[in-house]
Amino acid sequence: MARIGVDVGGTNTDLVLECAKGVFYHKVPTTLKNQSIGVVEGVQGICRKAGIAPSEVETIVHGTTTATNITIEHNGAECGMITTEGFRDILHIGRHKRPYNFSLHFDVPWQSQPLVKRRNRISVAERILPPTGEIVTPLDERAVRDACALFRKRGINSVVIGFMFAFLNDAHEVRAKEIVLEEMPEAYVTLSSEVAKVMREYERFSTAAMNSYVGPKTAFYLRDLDSRLREAGVTSKLRIMQSNGGVSTVEACAKRPIRILMSGPAGGVIGGASEGAMAGEANIITVDIGGTSADISTIPAGEVKIMNPRDTYVSGHPVLTPMIDLVTIGAGGGSVAYIDEAGAFHVGPRSAGSEPGPACYGRGGTEPTVTDAQIVLGRLDPDMALGGDLKLDAGLSYKAIEEKIAKPMGMTVKEAALGIIRIINNNMALAIRSNSVARGIDPREFSIMPFGGAGPLHGVALAEAMSCKDVIVPVAPGITAAVGLLKTDLQYEHTEAVIVELMKAGEGQFARINAAVATLRDKVQAELDNDGIARDQQTITVIAECRYHGQGFELRAAMPDGPVTAQNVQVIADSFHDQHQQDYGYSYRKAEVELITLRAIGSASVRRIEIPTIPATDGSSIDRALMFVRATTFDDGRTLETPRYDRTKLFAGDRVPGPALLHQHNATTLVPPGYVAETLDYGNTRIRPIGA
């Protein structure tokens, strides 16, 4: 049966299809007003390309930026919040952190762009006390109904319920939800204990508020997409990529859209890790450069990293949900170059997107972009974009750069275009350093992997800036994120707060830990059962999130096999010490270790896409792949006659010396002078200095 991976970006929608006839790739413009239209058109188009009927598709795995874009554009739902009396301002106060310690002018996102406006945060009487979750003040149900009446009057239909210490006892939140749905049957309701059953009220409330803020629009998009696919004759299962690198169902993600805030970039990291394995490289720095943004992640020893909870911020708001460790910046092919009021030269983060797009698209865009600079420098051939399917106008690129950059700066158009490329490369290099060098990782031991439609044009420059050992270009660079969607497993996570000092724990504490583990296993198993996964295909892992007594955040530690007892509790402590040593370079082996949260991760393995190998070189000349020769300007300012090769006609073992461009439908790879590109077994490419 056929499977499709669909990754929707800000500019293009990328698709990969695996079926009995082979692996097929496709790319269509993103329909920004309703992304589901472009997804359906892309699915139909790739099925035609493969010569199969849409009804033959068994599964579609989708990476989406819908929830992410809502947070960036600040156009989520108008939310109401019901919270504990005396605590309505927690979302405003936050942690009293200054984003920039020494700046007199800075923005505080949780205050300037609140997820729930203060007038819509209603407090009610109720109180639960730690550490047992004892109820000391019953829930004022009349006050909850009055809050609902106020929400109805204000036209609010998305409600957050967050009570103090609900992570220890969720009875009040559950009852409040029942009342809200009685009073407002169509309301979108989020409980803090459902989305983040962990301590820290500000982060928990913020997570619940974010869920309700992005929830209505995200749920509508996912269900609308599912419906449109059915209408188009696609009866396959639709799965959604989550921020943690696993996939889930439409309904699960519609209820908890915070799980998919980093859905799109996650597919690229998974795909990059897989491509690294295919190239025999364990240490990879992925740089996914699309039309709008660049997503950067470091993969040491082939292991995709999950962010620490303290780092999981989205648009300035803390969100306690597992996310792949990556950095996103506004740097892509559509990033706009401009001169500010003070005369400084900038590129990005604003993007021309796909509508109107770069000037060369001829859709009304007049501002110069990175893509326009690549065309002016001869690195993109205007008649070869998307294999010739997208015709570009080089004259419009030249005009935009000349009028907006070159003349105001008193430089030639070529100098201005080179300046655009150098600035965007420097921006990306700084982001790579923040995700590698700043965390104790030596880039000299890593290969850089550029992908996305624009990635392979920047690969060598970024490798030089970071002193990486070489460049690995994936088989289908422009579709790598979509390929990653077909290389990941179904995954669910649940948490339970259990605060215990491990070295002082007695039988009562061990009983609490083991009861919580059993509850978590049942929850995860129920979700996998509902998704039709056979019990023998389910894998459930429970991990402990621990800290030294008095620390502010936790690290993940392994749990022992079987129930936790006095005899094996040291397994958790030792694992925590080891993780602390790895992350921070030191540990306190004799210090008390506190268990804070238990997390259960349930997964089910799915069949991975299999990329076929290509024939080995027969010793014939690479001229078999030669297309034509054109002038191209490189980073050192030299303009050289540069051959273009059809990358799909190269065999494993073929070596292409620079200068050269490698063409394929979804991306163009730049091989500068002094470098050589070697085709590897799967059609991927390694670029390194000649003689290295």
Can you give a write-up of this model?
It is a single chain. The protein is α/β, with parallel strands linked by helices. It has 17 helices and 32 strands. Strand 2 (12-19) and strand 3 form a beta hairpin. Helix 12 (394-409) crosses helix 13 (413-435). The longest helix has 31 residues, at 201-231.
| Unreliable stretches | none
Largest beta-sheet characterization = 8 strands, mixed
* Helical residue percent band: 25-40%
Number of strands: 32
- What integer is the average pLDDT? 90
Count helical runs: 17
**End-to-end separation:** 44 Å
Q: What portion of the residues fall into strands of 2 or more residues?
A: 25-35%
Write the layout of secondary structure elements.
Elements: E1 2-8, E2 12-19, E3 22-29, H1 35-50, E4 57-63, H2 66-73, E5 79-84, H3 90-93, H4 109-112, E6 121-124, E7 127-129, E8 134-137, H5 141-153, E9 158-162, H6 171-183, E10 188-191, H7 192-195, H8 201-231, E11 237-241, E12 247-249, H9 250-255, H10 263-278, E13 284-289, E14 294-299, E15 313-314, E16 317-318, E17 327-329, E18 335-339, E19 345-351, H11 370-376, H12 394-409, H13 413-435, E20 447-451, H14 455-466, E21 470-473, H15 480-485, E22 490-501, H16 507-530, E23 538-548, E24 555-558, H17 569-584, E25 593-604, E26 626-633, E27 639-646, E28 655-657, E29 660-664, E30 667-671, E31 675-679, E32 685-689
Parallel strand pairs: 1-4, 4-11, 5-6, 5-9, 9-10, 13-20, 20-21, 27-29
Antiparallel strand pairs: 1-2, 2-3, 7-8, 11-12, 13-14, 14-17, 15-16, 18-19, 21-32, 22-25, 23-24, 23-25, 26-27, 28-31, 29-30, 31-32
